[in-house]
Amino acid sequence: MTEANIPFRVRLAARGVDGVTLLVIPALILLVALFLYPFSYGLILSFRPKDGTLFGNYGHFFSDPFLYKTIWTTLALAIPVTIINLVAAVPVAFRVRKMRYQRLITTILVLPITLGTVLVAEGMLNYFGPQGWFIRTLTLLGLGSPSSIKLVHNYWGVFLSLVITGFPFTFLLTLSYVSGIDVALENAAATLGARSAARFRTIFLPLLAPGLAITFCLSFVQAYSVFPSAVLLGAPAGPTRVISIAAYEAAFEQYDYSLASAIAMIMGGVQLVVVVGVLMSRSLFYRGPAAGAKG
Asked: What was the pLDDT predicted at 189?
């Protein structure tokens, strides 16, 4: 039988392309349409400033303190929030994995994800605002007053919002890594006399380090892209003027889409630097799988 007589499907299968492989095509189309094309368009647009120079937008950004300081403002929010969520998620995940009603507790803990940042922000305004229940309770107990306790329209309002909305995401990722570690490793160490702190330091932490690094990166990217919380719960023109607000103002207040694209590229570049740095640090702990094998 000549090659021309062989069915096309058989020839594709001989080259390692079958029906399952073809299922990748819709994903590739979505990737190109929703990521590669917008990214390429924005990158090219960032090099077309109004003044006609190639790097005019980037020079303008890094020469204006009102713009480049948004990088540090955003980092000052994203990094502490990510660390706190990660540190809090580890012990909670260890505890939940041994509970009888693990699914129910997990569902309760991830509820803030279903609410969304805007609804969480509205709830915090009603609860932590000057006339909210929390402030009124502290006032009745003589522990403070609306003028002395301010938890919204400042740094701490945005901080609390990011912790509330970011913790469930961090917890779910951490729980998946913790649950993947073979319990026999912990039992063996306990049999040899290792205490809980030693077991965590010598067994769990090295195995969890790669997974925690990935969790840190994903949580950091989520926190670094903060926008609704910074507007509703912070001070957009002051201490919580994050880089996403600068991009929004350039695009929809100044109508300078080229500058807005440049700010977005800088925002992505900062995230990439942090992510690469964290992923490179994984080798300091353990080079291997993120979890012990079960079975």
From this structure: 83
